[in-house]
């Protein structure tokens, strides 16, 4: 057991996350307590010029909790990793920002969300983006592979956050940027591990 979770607990968490996001892949409307789609992007002040260059279906897929581009961390030619890429909206925005000489990889645990991401990519002319299924706790990339790592609303879903952060630091180049937008717990953490697991994908 690590961080209070058994192997069975971790399996239940992953199954819960996958089940929820298989529904999100179809349509995120009504599945979150915050605005999604174009409304969410506007509320988070994404660059309207970039949004205007993307198909409506791509914008409809958005269900992030923050704007990882608000810091201006991405410049042309850089390599970017998007952890928990979902339907691919942020990855495609990053691909526009880094340009044809750059590279963007989006990862997610949900095969359904990745299917949506590939569909969204096919609606664009972008050639510098790819997606793959894997966990942030075990990134299949070489050391110092990325200039920037972004993530929006994914780290709260990861059981072993210290391990995931260690992996992120491994794949980041020296002087690289990590930009995370996420939900945080403002009250006390429940001592009831079962209750925490049951609420994981809520």
TrEMBL record:
It is an enzyme of class 2 (transferase). The keyword Methyltransferase applies. Residues 75-195 form the Methyltransferase domain. One of its GO terms (molecular function) is arsenite methyltransferase activity. Keywords: Menaquinone biosynthesis, Methyltransferase, S-adenosyl-L-methionine, Transferase, Ubiquinone. Its EC number is 2.1.1.137. It catalyses: arsenic triglutathione + [thioredoxin]-dithiol + S-adenosyl-L-methionine + 2 H2O = methylarsonous acid + [thioredoxin]-disulfide + 3 glutathione + S-adenosyl-L-homocysteine + H(+); arsenic triglutathione + 3 [thioredoxin]-dithiol + 3 S-adenosyl-L-methionine = trimethylarsine + 3 [thioredoxin]-disulfide + 3 glutathione + 3 S-adenosyl-L-homocysteine + 3 H(+); arsenic triglutathione + 2 [thioredoxin]-dithiol + 2 S-adenosyl-L-methionine + H2O = dimethylarsinous acid + 2 [thioredoxin]-disulfide + 3 glutathione + 2 S-adenosyl-L-homocysteine + 2 H(+). GO terms for biological process: menaquinone biosynthetic process; methylation. SUPFAM superfamilies: S-adenosyl-L-methionine-dependent methyltransferases (SSF53335). The keyword Nucleotidyltransferase does not apply. Pfam families: Methyltransf_31. InterPro entries: Arsenite_MeTrfase-like, Methyltranfer_dom, SAM-dependent_MTases_sf, UbiE/COQ5_MeTrFase. Belongs to the methyltransferase superfamily. Arsenite methyltransferase family. PANTHER family: ARSENITE METHYLTRANSFERASE. This is Arsenite methyltransferase. It comes from Desulfomonile tiedjei (strain ATCC 49306 / DSM 6799 / DCB-1). The lineage of its organism: Bacteria, Pseudomonadati, Thermodesulfobacteriota, Desulfomonilia, Desulfomonilales.
